[in-house]
# Entry
Amino acid sequence: MQYIPSCYIAHLLERGVTMETLRVGFVGLGRMGKPMCRNLLRAGFPLAVFNRSQSAVNELVMAVAHRADSAADVAAHADIILSALPSPQASETVFLGRDGLVTHASPGQIFVEVGTIGPSLARRIAEAAERRGCSFLDAPVSGGPEGARDATLTVMVGGTAATVARADAVLRTIGSTVRRMGEVGAGSIAKLVNQALTAIHTASAAEALVLGTAAGVDPAALLEVLATSYGQSRMLDRSGPRILDRKFEAAAPLRLLMKDLDLVEALASEVGAPLPLTTVVQSLCSTCEAMGLSESDLAALVRPFECEAGSTVCRSVAVEEISRG
# Structure
């Protein structure tokens, strides 16, 4: 018997939703999609899944998900279909392609993209869904694989209030903060603002840590004191320990941040907003790419600074031994 937490059941019943009446589908079972699906299954939702790589599908089928043969097959087995795809091009194909979700939609279905695709594509998908009698939400998430695992993601939603209300129980199963930002496209805009800040804050944290290290201050002590100072930031807290421990394996690959910054640039061009700081970080990302760091975590933005300064930000064994003593 599958364990279904009572808090999930209460949440569904409050909204007039039962596990028997609301079927969920999911396309894209990568770092983010697979843990989201596990939370949907824990909540008791009937779940149909599709992914090009079958290993993730096999895992979820063992947890009683239904194996779909294609995106179109997911659409045939679900009332609300989510996707977590790596690029706008992949999203366009999955939603609007010949074998896509919208192409094979049934009236009344809701489609939700939780990846970062940009507002213009979100509006195109929404228009196509509306012609099929369906609804679309752009609902990109922030919080990384850890947030997806723990269901603590922030979900930034664009769409009609009525559609967001219908999808609320599902969205709150994957995230602890769900906020409607406006009509379709608004969720994507909010996420792009977040990504610009993520890039700038990560780069500035890396630059500052290299400065302190090159000047002779132990970076572990520096990181500790910055945590209670005005220089503190979420990205410093997140990436600082990774830098100190030289753990650059990708939780959030630099190539995805670069993709998002291209979308930020396109949005800024469309609305006429200046991006001097983001442009600098784009150049830094290009340097990282040339260094072969595209698949590394975004904390690897520290590497160009370290190379130029001739100083590496890492934990001091001597300081750690003194602290333990």
